[in-house]
Write a structure and sequence with these properties.
Elements: E1 2-6, H1 14-24, H2 35-44, E2 53-59, E3 62-70, E4 82-88, H3 97-111, E5 116-121, H4 127-131, E6 136-143, E7 146-154
Antiparallel strand pairs: 1-2, 2-3, 3-4, 5-7, 6-7
Helix pairs in contact: 1-2
Length: about 160
């Protein structure tokens, strides 16, 4: 059974989450991101009642995925908050864990009083995943020199 909780309650999971992030998101043009940089981000996300923070998915005691919630994710400072860093261990993909993380993030952001949530994706192939969960494309932008698709979800 997959459980979702705040990273702040499971700091011991940080080394595993660094490896999941690097294996899933740390490829392609993001391959220049180091393990120490990912770990520094995770340390910044050890909050729960204020942004930024991270949510973790567990299979028993094993961390298998995560996402972050931040006020700004590097583009469009006029809109907030942002869902980012959604990643699931390769052995656990296509089992609904990403969807559970997104739903938990939406619930947490709603509980903090926000009415919308934003994200950006690098690959058009992810549009279907987010559309099925009520997200809509609102435009395109550039993140660190790379084109991204910006999406929003009304909570």
């Amino acid at each position: 059974m997959i459980a979702i909780d705040l990273l702040k309650n499971h700091q011991e999971a940080i080394p595993s989450l660094v490896q999941i992030w690097l294996a899933t998101l740390g490829s392609g043009w993001m391959s220049n991101v180091s393990a120490s940089q990912v770990e520094a981000w995770l340390q910044e996300w050890l909050n729960g009642d204020a942004l930024p923070f991270a949510l973790i998915a567990f299979d028993g005691n094993k961390p298998v995925g995560m996402c972050s919630l931040q006020m700004n994710d590097g583009i469009r400072p006029d809109v907030f908050p942002w869902l980012g860093d959604l990643c699931v261990d390769a052995n656990y993909q296509n089992q609904g864990i990403g969807k559970k993380l997104v739903c938990a993030a939406q619930e947490k952001i709603r509980s903090l009083g926000f009415k919308k949530l934003y994200l950006f994706i690098f690959e058009e192939s992810l549009l279907t995943f987010y559309h099925k969960q009520g997200w809509k494309k609102i435009g395109q932008d550039v993140y660190e020199g790379h084109p991204v698709i910006v999406m929003e979800c009304t909570l």
